[in-house]
Amino acid sequence: MRVVLAEDEVLLREGLCGLLERFGFEVVASVGDAEGLHAAVREHAPDLVLTDIRMPPGHSDEGLRAAVELRRTRPELAVVVLSQYVEHHHAAELLDSAEGRGVGYLLKDRVVDVEEFVGTLRQVVDGGTAVDPQVVRQLLRRRADPLARLSAREREVLSLIAEGHSNASIARRLVVSEAAVGKHVGSILSKLDLPPTDDGNRRVLAVLAFLRGNG
C-alpha cells in the first residue's frame, strides 16, 4: 500500500513514516507543504494520501485545499486528513467528494490506539469513510448556524441592518464608504443563500437569519 505523507512538523512526519512502514505501508514520499504534496502524487500515484491541514506557506488550510483538489482530479485516490483542527471551510467539500468513498478526517489528539488508526487507514483505502465524531459535531453545528459563514465585519453590518439602518447610515457609523457597505451586504446575502426574488425583501430575510442565530 503506497502512501504519500504530507506533514510540516519534521519529528511528527518522521514518526508517522516509521509507524506506517512498521505496519506494512510503503511511504513513497514524505513532504512538508502542499506544493510538495501535489508533486509527490503526480510522481508516485499512491494508494493513499495522509495529510495535515495547516502547512507552509500560510499555515492556514493549504493541506485541506490540496486534498480537495486532489480528490477533484483523482476521485479514486484515498485521502485521510490528520490534524489538530476542524477546518470548516472545504471540509464538507472533501467529505462529499466521490460520494464520500475513500476519505477520512481524523484528529491527532484523539488517536489513542495505533492499531485502530492503521485499521482506519486501510478501511479508507478500501473505499470506506472515517470521520472523527468531534469533526461531525462541529460541521453539523456550523451548518445549523447560517451566520457562522459571516466574517466579524459582516456580522457587524448585519447587526446594523437589523437595527433598521440604511447602507448610508451604516457607512457613517463604521467610517467606511457606502460602496464598501454595499459589498458587505452583497456578501452577506450570498453567504446566507438569499438569491434575488420578486416577492421577498432579502434584507428582511437576512435580519430574520440574524435574529434566529442570536436568539
Automatic annotation (TrEMBL):
The modification 4-aspartylphosphate is found at residue 52. CDD domains: LuxR_C_like, REC_NarL-like. PROSITE patterns: HTH_LUXR_2 (PS50043), RESPONSE_REGULATORY (PS50110). It comes from Amycolatopsis rubida. Pfam families: GerE (PF00196), Response_reg (PF00072). Residues 2-123 form the Response regulatory domain. The keyword Phosphoprotein applies. The keyword Ribosomal protein does not apply. This is Response regulator transcription factor. It comes from the Bacteria. Residues 143-213 form the HTH luxR-type domain. Keywords: DNA-binding, Phosphoprotein, Transcription, Transcription regulation.
